[in-house]
Amino acid sequence: DQAWDFAVPIVLLKIMPGHLRIAALYYLLMRMASVVLLPRLASVIDTKDRIKVVRLGLLIQFAGVSLGAASVYSLWIFGFESPSFSSVKFSVVFLFMVIGGLLGTLGASLMDIAIANDLAPSVFSGQELSRFNSRFRQVDLLTEVGSPVIAGLLLTLSDVWIPMTGFLLVVFWNLISFFPEYGILSSVFQERPDLQKKLMHISDGVRKSFTRKIAEGWKEFFEQ
For 108-152, what is each residue's pLDDT tens digit? Predict the structure, then answer.
């Protein structure tokens, strides 16, 4: 995830030099949509079995990276050195790129919440949970530092026969990582079948409308 988030804007600036606003607009739209849609998607954790949530999260991520990679590569193939939203072709590619980025972000966020906030507290307790959370954050911080470095090194690779070789390696790195991730989580559920299913409940908070959640959330924030 960290490598992908680092690579996309770098590649966009390489394809469209001098057009930082395109990369900025991409991230702005993606984050705004994520703020609106993530709470609704996260509510799935409370209504579905854990194994189904894992499959959904990884599937969304896989689809997001695939669509995003195809869109970025299309920008290079079509040669949009001077992009303009007056061009229907560019607008369509940009839209798919935003959708791909949104799916990837939603899937990653869903997996983080499902593992750290739902699965882990059901497996560990007390001091064990504290140690797990500490290790979890250490790995997260390590990837935040290390992944951009590795991705940056990969992006320097180029081949005459395979344009954007480094970017394709980052894409492959992302897509292939979903399989061992699913295998590891599946092994946890195989060892602890009781974790696959959980008591389903829909809290009153889930039933509230989006606008009501926003209003009550800000009210509580200012009260605190």
Answer: 888 988 888 888 888 888 889 889 889 988 998 998 999 999 999
Interhelix angle 2-15/50-78, rounded to 10 degrees, is 20
Contact 78, 89 (CB under 8 A): yes
Q: Which residues contact 39 (CB under 8 A, 6 or more apart)?
A: 210, 213
Which stretches within the chain are classed as H helix? 2-15, 20-42, 50-78, 88-112, 120-123, 127-155, 165-191, 204-207, 210-223
Rounded distance, CA 78 to CA 110, Å? 34
Give which of 111, 122, 192, 157 is closest to 7, Cα–Cα. 157
pLDDT in tens, 7-66: 888 888 888 888 888 888 988 998 888 888 888 888 788 788 888 889 999 999 999 999
Per DSSP, the three-state class of 18 is: coil
CB contact at 8 A, 199 and 45: no
pTM for the model: 0.79
Alpha-carbon span 176 to 188, nearest angstrom: 20
Sign of the torsion angle spanned by Cα atoms 83, 89, 92, 98: negative
